[in-house]
Amino acid sequence: MYGLIWRLLPGPWPVRLLLAAVLVAGVAAGLWYYAFPAIDPYMPFNSGAVDTSEGGG
Fold it and tell me: What is the pTM of this model?
């Protein structure tokens, strides 16, 4: 798949490298700002509080 993307990018290899970096950054930003917040309520590690109601300590 990466070979296909590399072949579809226009220009010489420095331009392809820059475009590939921009694509990777765009995908990472899309995941960070849209996908991960959308699935956050369904993840099992949302509650990070430690229960201290037993009086230990």
Answer: 0.68
